[in-house]
Design goal:
The structure holds 2 protein chains of 2 kinds. Chain A is mainly α. Chain A has 11 helices and 2 strands; from the N terminus they run ααααββααααααα. Chain B has a domain at about 30-40 and about 70-205 and about 220-240: Rossmann fold (3-Layer(aba) Sandwich). Helix content of chain B is about 40%, strand content about 25%. Chain B has 11 helices and 10 strands. Classes of the chains: A mainly alpha, B alpha/beta. Chains A and B meet through helix 6 and helix 7 of A and helix 2 and helix 3 of B. Bound molecules: adenosine-5'-triphosphate and magnesium ion.
């Protein structure tokens, strides 16, 4: 049943990928890891949940609302928690502290306003899986995979093929020289957070559907962060590769060793990769930062 | 008359380092003005202050008589491009994308296409390498690329920071030819150079910068013959004595 495990691993890897690209995108341009990213995902999960339950919108619209909502929230976080530091050229440590503060605030704000209880998405897709030969593929897993592929393709097109995407890449390489080209660093930061937030938004909905929604679900994204680092922090293809490697490792460890050892084995592998290749799997281009 | 660019009593400090100590200079439309000076004199600091990537502590910078905005991208929008020192290409982008990003603020697709052709005509090597990552170019090719990238914004005023540094003599000739050419085509230039001889030879006017202060100014040709300048920057005691 190796194939079955691969299918399961790809499904969970896909959600990690949606989250990991956000970490990587922000890091590539601003050189720090946005540890409030998980909380943006959490808020996206709630937006999707309440859109479905209270507003009763169709599923695709709920996803769209989660993406837009989370994107805007991420933009606001950048504006109030990071931009003032960036303009004052504060040391990186301050960004980390600010991110942690934001994260704790968002979690507690959610607990106070929405409540600490776990919420379960309604079953939008029939629970009964597809059977393809011996394989059984969950319908939700299939939706997750398709949605991920669409989002990643869109993101890739945006970053690698459009004028503004090339500006993002230029800013990622050297913000100072990019500004000499007429690129506004504030605009790039806003955009990058919007993109990262939107991917986290859909990631949150899919995560919430696969598991549950609760105020501190953002901590789970630490795995996606590790995946992004393993892939080569700052590299989009790296984030995706790292996420799938992590997803598949996890399912294999759970299936063939013990689910209690799942995290132990996957993190061990991740640590080995990092120690052997500090730049990550895809971190080839030396990133020169100014 | 108002100058195209004018700096008045400009001071820049990096923490305790007082890098510019009351610089006043001007550049008129159509000129090539050069700044010469030893390492650490403050030449790059001056260009970066104009480009607004370094904050000024006092003094003012006027462009067409108006204060220049204090954000780098807004300065570019006003028509001032900088070719920074040290071959700062975007190594993660192709040659073509590097050039296109130079035209980031422009909306006239036809003008951009024409300027791309112009850059390729000036530096045929870049056309051959257009789909290659800039990081894989040789040092000289990277220098051609940063100059080409600067031209792509079709600036009214171009600030160039040591464009000939570390290039083979043949290429240095070539770069100075290009500088003359783009000036004839209508771009005003403020040129920082350590190759004082060549810079003074092509400049209309020049300023000599020493530890953050302007110690001499005048026509390029005159400074070229100035014994003190020769001694300090042209390494030419012999010609000084002959004179
Ligand atoms: N970011 C900085 N922080 C602190 N000091 C700086 C900084 N940049 C430049 N300096 C100092 O300011 C002075 C002027 O430097 P600048 O780079 O402008 O010199 P330069 O004339 O361009 O020299 P070079 O010919 O070597 O390029 C030097 O003493 C330098 O050490
Ligand atoms: Mg310099």
């Amino acid at each position: 049943m190796i194939l079955q495990q691969i299918v399961n691993g790809i499904s969970i890897g896909a959600v990690y990928a949606l989250i990991a690209v956000g970490y990587s995108l922000v890091y590539s341009v601003l050189n720090f890891s946005n540890f409030a990213h998980g909380d943006v995902l959490m808020l996206g999960a709630y937006i999707g949940f309440f859109s479905l339950m209270l507003l009763k919108v169709p599923f695709p619209l709920a996803i769209a609302m989660a993406m837009v909502g989370a994107g805007i929230i991420a933009m606001i976080i950048e504006k109030i928690a990071y931009r003032p530091l960036r303009l004052r050229r504060a040391p990186l440590l301050y960004f980390m502290i600010s991110a942690m503060g934001m994260s704790i605030f968002l979690q507690n704000f959610t607990i106070v306003t929405i409540g600490p209880n776990f919420r379960t998405y309604p079953d939008i897709f029939p629970v009964k899986p597809f059977a393809v030969g011996n394989l059984s593929i969950g319908r939700l897993d299939l939706v997750i995979l398709i949605a991920t592929v669409i989002v990643l393709l869109l993101l890739t097109w945006l970053v690698y093929k459009t004028r503004i995407g090339i500006a993002i890449q230029a800013a990622a390489y050297n913000m100072r020289v990019a500004s000499l080209m007429g690129i506004n660093p504030d605009l790039i930061a806003t955009l990058v957070f919007l993109l990262a937030g939107a991917s986290a938004g859909i990631g949150g909905v899919l995560f919430g559907m696969k598991y549950t929604v609760y105020p501190w679900m953002g901590v789970l994204t630490i795995k996606a962060f590790v995946a992004a680092v393993v892939g080569g922090l700052g590299s989009l293809p790296g984030a995706v590769v790292g996420a799938f490697v992590l997803g598949i490792t996890e399912t294999f460890a759970a299936a063939y060793i013990s689910s209690a050892f799942r995290d132990l084995f996957s993190y061990l592998l991740m640590t080995i990769i990092i120690v052997a290749r500090p730049a990550g799997l895809m971190g080839t281009v030396a990133q020169e930062k100014a | 008359m108002t100058h195209l660019l004018e700096c008045k009593d400009l001071h820049v400090k990096y923490g305790g380092v007082h890098a510019l100590r009351g610089i006043s200079l001007h550049v008129d439309e159509g000129e090539i003005v050069t700044i010469i000076g030893a390492n650490g004199a403050g030449k790059s600091t001056l260009l970066n202050a104009i480009s607004a990537i370094v904050p000024i502590s006092s003094g003012e910078i006027l462009y067409e008589g108006q204060p220049l905005p204090r954000k780098a991208h807004q300065v570019v929008a006003r028509g001032i491009a900088q070719v920074p020192e040290g071959r700062q290409v975007f190594a993660n982008l192709t040659v073509k994308d590097n050039l296109k990003i130079g035209a980031f603020l422009r909306r006239d697709a036809q003008g951009v296409a024409a300027d791309l052709e112009r850059v390729y005509r000036i530096f045929p090597r870049l056309r051959e390498r257009e789909n290659q990552y800039a990081g894989s170019l040789s040092g000289g090719e990277q220098q051609m690329l940063v100059i080409g990238r600067g031209l792509m914004s079709h600036p009214r005023l171009m600030l160039m920071d040591e464009p000939s540094l570390g290039l083979a003599p043949m290429l240095v000739q070539e770069i100075f030819k290009v500088i003359r050419e783009i000036n004839r085509e209508g771009t005003t230039l403020l040129l920082v150079e350590q190759n004082a001889h060549k810079a003074l030879a092509i400049a209309h006017r020049a300023y000599v910068l020493e530890t953050g202060e302007i110690i001499r100014e005048g026509y390029g040709q005159d400074l070229l013959k100035d014994p003190a300048v020769q001694e300090a920057y042209l390494g030419a005691r012999r010609t000084a004595r002959q004179k």
